[in-house]
């Protein structure tokens, strides 16, 4: 899903989108984020810590590969 979402995106969109995704995993009360498209479906894993880490792994790899990771 993330690979499809990334196509045609500017790198400046990626880190804010990751923060948005992370917030969706943490807070079930937030509405879906139209900017994330089908990635919103992954928010269901927010209640499962190990699955949450799995859902964030591609984002972390992308951020690291593009040197956008904040430590």
Short structural description:
The chain has 71 residues and is mostly helical. The chain is 49% helix and 0% strand.
Q: How would you describe this structure to a colleague?
A:
The protein is built from three helices and no strands. With about 70 residues, it is mainly alpha-helical. It has one domain (about 1-65). α2 packs antiparallel against α3 (about 50-65). The protein is globular and about 30 Å long.
Spell out the key features of this protein.
globular, 71 residues, mainly alpha
Span of the ends, CA to CA: 25 Å
The assigned structural class equals mainly alpha
Domain count: the total is 1
User: Mean pLDDT, as a whole number?
Assistant: 93
Strand content: under 5%
The helix fraction, in percent, is: 40-55%
Layout of helices and strands, plus pairs?
Elements: H1 2-6, H2 14-26, H3 49-65
Helix pairs in contact: 2-3
